Model the fold of this input.
Amino acid sequence: MVLNKKMKIIDLTHTFTPNMPVYPGDSVPKLEESIDTENNIVHFHLETGMHVGTHMDGPLHMIPNGRKLSEIPIEKFVANGHLLDARGKEKIDVELLEGKNLQEGDCVLIYTGFDKKLREPAFYKDYPDLTENFARKLVELKIKFVGMDTPSPDKVPYNVHRILLKEEILIIEALNNLSELLDIENFEVTALPAKFEAEAAPVRVVARIS
Done:
């Protein structure tokens, strides 16, 4: 396929830096550079949990015997996208889906503006939740994945996680730059997680606008 020169690609991923913030209580990641001066070679070493920065949750994260991300077919990671503007909402409910022509196999992205708070304490405390009714509606619509610019779709006891992951609706957390999709009717999302044999993984997410 030849890339259309008029096509716009938007990166929806936070850059993983040496000082990435983490959910309170999680281990702090390490991204360290080492240099072989004799041979002029640079190496980086990464030590991290899977739920840092922009990442994807797979079924095993919350569902006993659920599949690891490495077991999910590659087709699951590409979908036609729909952006929901949830700025100012404390609860994200089904009314935000009104007027959206969602089809089976599409994806939903939720813009709250919390991407700007990634390095603030409020990012992990004051974010809005998806309601269980909203999650069930996504299951009914058979979407591939849902993504948001917050650290999670819900809080303890994580019922929304379980509703979605039980049906293998993947969850992308801590997206970035969703504001660039406001007023865009048609776009495609590619969200490729690193192929770790694990319950979650860092993910590079891009939107393609033709």
In short: The mean pLDDT is 96.
